[in-house]
Write a structure and sequence with these properties.
By secondary structure, this protein is an alpha/beta fold. A hairpin with a 7-residue loop joins strand 1 and strand 2. The chain has 2 domains: 357 residues, Rossmann fold; 119 residues. The chain is rod-shaped, with a radius of gyration of 59 Å. Helix 7 packs parallel to helix 8, helix 8 runs antiparallel to helix 10 and helix 14 packs across helix 15. It contains 17 helices and 14 strands. The strands form 3 sheets. It has a 6-stranded antiparallel beta sheet with strand order 2-1-4-5-6-7, with helices on one face. A 5-stranded parallel beta sheet has the order 8-12-13-3-14, with helices on one face. It has a 3-stranded antiparallel beta sheet with strand order 9-10-11.
Length: 618
């Protein structure tokens, strides 16, 4: 992203002349001078104008006497400008003046035109950031554009995440930010991964559906096959949908069960009735037959009695002819009475053999008819068990349906879903993914080569000749490996060495981006705050060895600028804050230019402004 800063403007009051710092593109713009002159606040002001949510500007002097801050900058050849009111009580202003042009005059802004969130979205759209990747916005990418004084010699931190996004620091995946800077196709890779994930999940559901469908088909086919073997269902049933087959089978089984139950009840009722009737008729037949037999025996005994009493007539005649006693007469009369009764009974109860035969025959015939009816019904009931295999099949099917009732109820409406096209799509996406990953692996190697190129051109890293640079992607720091491939230095010594390691990292990073990523969203701009920190410790005097190291650092920066602009035909801007005097670079380093010298009373906030507003405050 061809970005550079044209001007930084600080407004104090409407009648006051604003403080304007002008910067050149494709140059190392050096602001040097004494300490406590406001130099390090320049990055805070730039950051604030580039829509930070929090202020990194010092309150005394700088923010205390300021009314507005403004930044004029260029994006791919087009000029924009942003102005914001100063933070009040360390609370950043939520109002922004965002213009698609430079500040036409030096007059202080009087109004704003959008809120900060709207300004951020607008800036993101200008720079081509996608709203789909909320964590990857221009503010997060600014971490690659600053080396602040508090990290330039740190062994543990290279990117100042809290400075750039203090509010969202813990919500941003900074490893992804680095990956997107080095391998911008990671967005495409993320899209591919997301698409693969969605397709895999879709296929998982399809596979689950098809497994359930296959199981349902297996169950219903088994039921249909069992019933079809006994010709209990039509063959055409197999051509129907699963739900229709299931509905037909259930209705058929319910009908069979109902018919069987109905038949059983009717037959049992009739059999019970016939058996009761047979029992009664058989009992009647037996009783009649026994009665006739007993009566015949009775008559035989009467005949015998009758025959035995016949001599009584003779006795009576003889008794009449002879005198007789009272007791003799009584006995004879008693016997005569009995004899007369027997004769009367013999004449009254006469058995008709023909009638007897008819009654018994009729009863016997009725018993035989009832027995025949019972046997016929028993044959019908028994006939049902003759086709036992069919009824066994119906029972098995009924059991299968009971065991799988919930599954069938839920899955009978499923259909087979073909996922062949999705599988081919996943295979194609995986091939693309592998291609991207191979390409990205090569890019990380190229990035390490860029770090190494600056290490090789440095003469001030003592005792590490022949070492290899290596990016630690987990810690986002630069490491050195010894000549042995597996040996890695956990520390590299002095603050001076770490200052150089930071230069290797940032210069190598930007060289790689410019050389390999034509549409990178990383600004081609770098703010470096005081590379001389390791050497200036409470004094402006430098040892000759320290001077040589600082000159080596400036020379590396100049080599970088020369390579970018002359060899790669690119663009880049550096704003460098320094303590060192300009004789370190003036007339020595082609791409260095002195923008401001803060000394002899000159500072970021002019002394006349300080005096004026101090009097007002007092």
């Amino acid at each position: 992203m061809n970005f550079y800063i044209k001007r930084l403007i600080i407004w104090f009051g409407e009648a006051d002349k604003p403080r304007i710092l002008t910067f050149k593109k494709d140059k190392v713009n050096v602001i040097t001078g004494n300490s406590s002159t406001g130099k390090s606040n320049i990055i805070g002001i730039i950051d604030y104008c580039l829509l930070s949510a929090k202020s990194n500007i010092v309150e005394p002097i700088v923010n205390e006497f300021t009314s507005w801050y403004g930044l004029e900058f260029s994006i791919n050849g087009k000029v924009f400008s942003i102005a914001r009111k100063r933070p009040e009580l360390e609370t950043a202003s939520s109002d922004v003046l965002f213009l698609e042009k430079g500040f036409e005059d030096e007059s202080m802004p009087s109004s704003t035109n959008m809120q900060i969130e709207a300004a951020r979205k607008y800036m993101n759209s200008l720079l081509g950031y996608s709203n789909d990747l909320r964590f990857y916005q221009f503010r997060a990418n600014m971490v690659f554009n600053i080396i602040t004084e508090d990290i330039i010699t740190s062994p543990h931190f290279y990117l100042n995440f809290p400075f750039v996004e203090r509010d969202n620091y813990n919500n941003i995946d900074w490893h992804s930010i680095l990956e997107m800077a080095i391998t911008p196709n990671i967005t495409e890779l993320l899209r591919i991964n997301k698409e693969i994930t969605l397709l895999v999940e879709k296929n998982r559901k399809v596979d689950s559906n098809n497994k359930k469908y296959a199981k349902t088909v297996e169950i219903i086919n088994r039921c249909v096959e069992l019933l079809s073997q006994h010709k209990l269902v039509p063959e055409a049933l197999k051509l129907q949908s699963l739900s229709m087959q299931l509905s037909y089978i259930r209705e058929y089984i319910n009908e069979i069960k109902s018919t069987i139950n109905s038949m059983d009840n009717d037959i049992r009722t009739k059999l019970n009735s016939l058996r009761t009737s047979l029992f009664k008729k058989s009992l009647q037949y037996s009783e009649v037959k026994n009665a006739i037999e007993q009566y015949k025996q009775y008559r035989i005994r009467l005949e015998e009695y009758n025959d035995s009493l016949r001599p009584l007539e003779l006795l009576r005649k003889k008794a009449e002819d002879n005198s007789k006693s009272i007791w003799t007469n009584y006995i004879i009369e008693s016997l005569n009475i009995s004899f007369q009764k027997i004769k009367g009974q013999l004449s009254t109860y006469v058995i008709n053999d023909n009638k007897e035969s008819v009654i018994l025959k009729q009863l016997k015939k009725e018993c035989e008819d009832l027995t025949q009816q019972i046997l016929s019904l028993e044959k019908i009931d028994k006939k049902k068990t003759l086709d036992a295999e069919s009824f066994r099949a119906v029972g098995i099917v009924e059991e299968i349906l009971k065991e799988n009732d919930k599954r069938l109820e839920k899955d009978c409406n499923l259909t087979f879903i073909s996922n062949e096209s999705d599988i081919k799509q996943i295979e194609g996406l995986n091939e693309k993914k592998e291609e991207f990953e191979r390409s990205n692996y090569d890019k990380w190697n190229k990035l390490n080569e860029c770090f190494q190129s600056y290490f090789n051109q440095c003469n001030s890293i003592d005792q590490y000749d022949g070492a290899k640079t290596k990016l630690d992607k987990d810690l986002i720091t630069l490491k050195l490996r010894g000549k042995g491939e597996g040996y890695e230095y956990s520390v590299v010594g002095s603050q001076s060495n770490y200052m150089f390691m930071h230069l290797f990292f940032f210069l190598g990073l930007h060289q790689y981006i410019i050389d390999n990523i034509s549409d990178s969203k990383v600004f081609q701009y770098l703010f470096i705050d005081q590379p001389s920190i390791p050497y200036y410790v409470g004094t402006n005097d430098l040892k000759s060895t320290d001077r040589g190291k600082l000159e080596d650092a400036f020379n590396l920066i100049n080599i970088f600028m020369k390579h970018i602009i002359e060899d790669l035909k690119g663009h880049f801007q550096i704003i460098l804050i320094e303590h060192a005097p300009q004789d370190y670079w003036k007339d020595k380093l082609d791409y260095f230019t002195t923008c401001e010298i803060f000394q002899d009373g000159k500072a970021l906030i002019p002394q006349d402004i300080i005096n004026k507003y101090k009097e007002t405050h007092d």
